[in-house]
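To: structure subgroup
Subject: Chain for Friday's discussion

All,

I'm putting the inputs and outputs inline so they're searchable in the archive.
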Amino acid sequence: MPDSSVLDRTLLYGQDFEVQLPPGTTELEFRPSADTWPNRHFPIQKGIVTPIPPGYLGRVSVRQGCFVLEGVTSADQGQYTVWYQSGGGDLEITHELSVTAHSDSHTLRSGAALSLPLFTAEPVEVLFAAAGEGASVSVCAVERGAASRPGPGYEHRVSVQSGSLTLSSLTAADQGQYTVRDSRTNRTISSVSVSVSEEALRPRPSGSRSHIAALLSVGCVPLAALVCVVWACRRCWHKAPPETSTV
């Protein structure tokens, strides 16, 4: 008789989902939370997923006895049932996966740059809601690793580097809530609250105070030695007996 127990799992967007495969595993079945999406079947043969369903190439594998699904998104939410044989019968273990959004906050100085991790290689849209306002505006879209369609005021200020969106030259007007949203599902990937300090970034002096003090102390050593020599000479001159003339 199949085991109907369900194990709940919650991961952040972009994390890897791992499922332990018991000996004798023959298949893993995925039933998405979205009813309109069909089930997915992952046959397991000799510790290898084969064939790999469309859309999962490069994302699924078997490592050290675990089924691994890399970089989960909201589309990966649902039930994952492992079918295996034991004692001459068919058994099952079901894992219920939920995917939640990241949340963070930053305080930056005016003129600094904000870095927003995207957590996915899929198309996303970045939205901004100013502090105290409910309406959001589009900062830009990100597709194929590049920023596109920047909104008014964001031209030449946005770029994508190492999986993160960079917004340069922050001002007080950039304070508020930034949301990274999956363009396919409209689900939130991350939400970041940003405060901007009015104190602008100042260039760092070429030398620190301690460095300057060290230079001064080094320069004072020969000067002090010279003063001592002069003082000693003057003392000897004053103590010397007056010269006597002989007739």
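Points worth raising on Friday:
Residues 212-216, 243-247 have pLDDT under 50 and may be disordered.
The chain has two domains: 6-100, 102-200.

D.
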